[in-house]
Design brief:
The structure is a homodimer. The first copy, chain A, is an alpha/beta fold. Chain A is built from nine helices and twelve strands. A five-stranded mixed β-sheet of chain A has the order 3-2-1-4-7, sandwiched between helices. In chain A, helix 1 packs parallel to helix 2 and helix 3 packs across helix 9.
Amino acid sequence: MTLFGGIEAGGTKFVCAVGSGPEKIESIVKYPTTNPTQTLNHAVDFFEKSDSPINAIGIASFGPIDLHTSSPTYGQITTTPKPGWQNVDIVGRIESALGLPVAFDTDVNGAALAEHRWGAAQRDDTFVYLTIGTGIGGGGMVGGKLIHGMLHPEMGHMPLPRDPERDPFSGICPYHGDCLEGLAAGPAIEARWGMRGEKLGGNHPAWELEAHYLALGLMNIITILSPTKIILGGGIMQQPNLLALVRHEVQSLLNEYIQAPQLFDGIDEYIVRPALGDQTGVLGAIALAQYNLH
Amino acid sequence: MTLFGGIEAGGTKFVCAVGSGPEKIESIVKYPTTNPTQTLNHAVDFFEKSDSPINAIGIASFGPIDLHTSSPTYGQITTTPKPGWQNVDIVGRIESALGLPVAFDTDVNGAALAEHRWGAAQRDDTFVYLTIGTGIGGGGMVGGKLIHGMLHPEMGHMPLPRDPERDPFSGICPYHGDCLEGLAAGPAIEARWGMRGEKLGGNHPAWELEAHYLALGLMNIITILSPTKIILGGGIMQQPNLLALVRHEVQSLLNEYIQAPQLFDGIDEYIVRPALGDQTGVLGAIALAQYNLH
């Protein structure tokens, strides 16, 4: 069996695994993200000690990252605010230490690819994976191709309408104030309501407002990409009522303009949770290694 | 030489041509869009009288349209407000009359494809073509594939932030009020300022506001798709100062968050006019016929 190494490079934790799919994880390790040298050495050690031969490594990374193979800074995490991680050549370090081909993409494009191979988007060639947690990020495919271009998507930073009477909180994005991430990521919820989202009850008005902003973001995604599925992951989506509120608000905002059955009776199968749960991230990294090798 | 027929099916005029590219148009005809029978018969007559053998027909149509070849309503213009044109089977009529393969897509996806083959996006695989006129529509490619999914993009209908103090005009979209089209298409400009855009002077404040809304739309496109180029066509873009205002406003709104040279010194080559001028539409139809046949 052909095995791959996957590195989910997150801002707070790294997950490394050897395997070939959700049913075939040979070994896995999780550890906190510290400084780049220590954190990447830990990954190298893990793969060097693997009993099974590995064909390629995939890295699904927090960003922003440089994905252009022709660029002098290809393989680097670029302008991240995370201390010590600016301009870290993550691909170069792994490639030279392990002597294996390395595939590299954003954590959310990786997660999208994993959901396409094994999860909620197996029948979809044009879809979006959006994660709502400490930050908001999105990835996806169009016609079976991961979305890349100038750089990679930065879906957390789309501008949204905000009615100051309904929501006087002006957002916390240091660049854009009340963009999607500035209004709807975990830290925005905490700053607006004075406590973390998981402490707000399910009937707190926070969730209707949250659903409103997420639905506005989905409106942008639907009008620009016309995906056949939207997968919503991340810690904030753990709030049990939120997904249903988002579905309802998307229908309300679209106002029946787009005539597709997915947006009416099919909405519960159109806006969905990830199917791969906790392992979406590292499976995304493994999927990237497979995607690039084939 | 392999020749193709192209039909630019617009809400106000039809353009039909036989050819294989911008330098190779053998014959062309333009006529007003009347009722479907008369309008489509005119197209059939034109191609039947063509001296040159045609290999396939492309139709680049106003919408919304049904693009799913497996759908019972494939090839139809669906819920258009244009009287008499709801549920018109434009592909079926042309296909059965001419006995040729017919490719079918939106006018803006056609225009995008033509600019990709022969125009401003020849080096771009991930880009967007946006037209700003009587309506606002967008098409484009990701990884060399035209953007299709649930349906086709409806970029005119993305929600935008509007500051009621700066702009008390609440938009004219019958579905969404102040979406992009509701705020920035030609009829919105006319309704807001009491005269048509071409009568407003180049220094009228209308253009800064227009640039602001278009730039917000481009922010959404950039954060969701990360295109390597954005092409702005349509009658409203004829205003000579507008393109420069849009470029400047995009930079201002992005606030240096996305670190790509295209968004700094390269902005004049990033947000551009169509290269094919008047013939983009019918060349788009010809390009669709070629794209589907190969």
